[in-house]
Amino acid sequence: MRTSLLKTAATLVAATALLAGALSGSAPAEAFPASNKQAVLDLLSEVEGQSIVSGQHNKEPATGASAYTKQVHDITGVYPGLWGGDLQFRSEDIANRQVIVNQAKTEWANGSLVTLSWHVCPPTGPSSCQFEGGVKSNISDYQFSQIITEGTALNAAWKQRLDEAVPYLQQLKDAGVPILFRPLHEMNESWNWWGARPGSDGTARLYQITRDYLEDTKGLDNLLWVWNVQDNPAGGWANYYPGDDYVDVVTLDAWYKGLPSTSDYQQIKSIAGSKPIALGELGKMPTESMLNSQPDWTYFMLWSEQLLGSNTDAEIRATYSNLRVLTQGEFSLGTGTGTGTDPDPGTGGTPLPAESRGAIVGLAGKCVDVAASGTANGTAVQLYTCATGVAQTWIVGTDGTISNPNSGKCLDVSASGTANGTVVQLWDCNGTGAQQWSYNSSTRELRNPNSDKCLDVTGNNSANSTRLQIWQCAATANQQWTLPS
């Protein structure tokens, strides 16, 4: 598959090349080339039922277009696989829309999908507004009917409002950046001026007009049209659906319950049919049990301030280390031919990610493990029966480090020791020689260049909880390791 659908300990050749490239000092190539919307749809088709792309929204101010994405990296050591932004509503942020466009280009080039929402001001007023009393406001039924009626002044005002965004969306088209575009979101809610208007002459009609204008009139064929409702317990979400011809991805925002219920999941699937489904906004990090019981979500997007406001660092790390969750560099795009299948299955031709992530397998098929899933400096690193979980998830970085995202700490030779038998532990990542590792593809040794010794299972003992150490490299079974793909 083109996507790294399960982050397991496999594909030794790929992992070997990855670490060798990292230690050579060569910079990784841009992960995503110029592409089209079909390539993203093909990716979502491949992911569905197997993995989920991680995402993080970045709200105003526009000048901090990656502020919340950086928070994810600070906690986990990885970047989300989906960057979220907004076309904005306040005057000072509208004036900085170019910053948002530039960030979207950067995120795409680095290997993340891109999604844009738009908290748009009502066409009954000026282009800029505040959230309270602007985006969050009410207009009359008559005013809304005029907006969706061709030839009226308010209909023209709506198209003029769309025109303001066209130059920025056009830049992204010209750069080959497909956008998961989520306009008029949470249309079953009454907090916004466009919402809570079911039926063919309601918000669904405004959504149709918006797509027709931006895609057919303005030629923005790089937009993937994301339809979105909130998990309002009143239900009836299908009453807002504009029709299959107008929707590429069906999404749900989960706010009433924290995480979507089984009935929410089934209701969205029934509306979507064969279309991909995703979680447009979340306040809580998806749990392992939710991901396992609702496997068809293709991506999730954590809302900006809720990342730290509603989740502990441990919860964030647990989600990002989950074997289902894909981060930046863990998937790639095809040609966008619309096949939705692997063009050359089983050949090992998957482009290398910027880093590898998963389990490290050694003696007797057991894994490198953080004792008791600890997070403190000095926590023992040991051999243990392989099992899904944060204690055995490692990131083989492009800088030669091996880190545990659950703790945010690195595989470290105690006190920078060089003697045989010096134990290996977790420690704050600090860039010292004690935390540098190289990989020999023929002997499968992980060598610490500072000591010129290898990662070793003490006493060649395959029992659970056997401590790992460094020892003179000897190409023996207790020094042979398979890195994650």
Shape: elongated
The CATH topology of the largest domain turns out to be TIM Barrel
Distance between the termini: 13 Å
Strand content: 15-25%
Give the total of beta strands: 21
Query: Please, how many helices?
Result: 12
Whole-number tally of structural domains = 2
Describe the structure.
By secondary structure, the protein is of the alpha/beta class. 49% of the residues are buried. Helix content is 26%, strand content 19%. The strands form four sheets. An eight-stranded parallel β-sheet has the order 2-3-4-5-6-7-8-9, sandwiched between helices. Strands 12-13-21-20-19-18 form a six-stranded antiparallel β-sheet. It has a five-stranded antiparallel β-sheet with strand order 11-14-15-16-17, covered by helices on one side. It has two domains: 32-326, TIM Barrel; 356-479, Trefoil (Acidic Fibroblast Growth Factor, subunit A), CATH 2.80.10.50. The protein has helices at residues 12-24, 37-47, 67-76, 91-94, 97-110, 141-147, 153-174, 203-217, 262-272, 288-293, 306-309, 313-320, and strands spanning 52-53, 55-57, 82-86, 113-117, 179-182, 223-230, 249-254, 277-282, 297-302, 325-326, 356-358, 367-370, 381-384, 394-396, 402-404, 409-413, 424-428, 438-440, 445-448, 453-457, 466-471. The longest helix is centred in the middle third of the chain and has 22 residues, at 153-174. It starts with 11 loop residues before the first helix and ends in a 14-residue tail after the last strand. The chain has twelve helices and 21 strands. It is elongated and about 80 Å long.
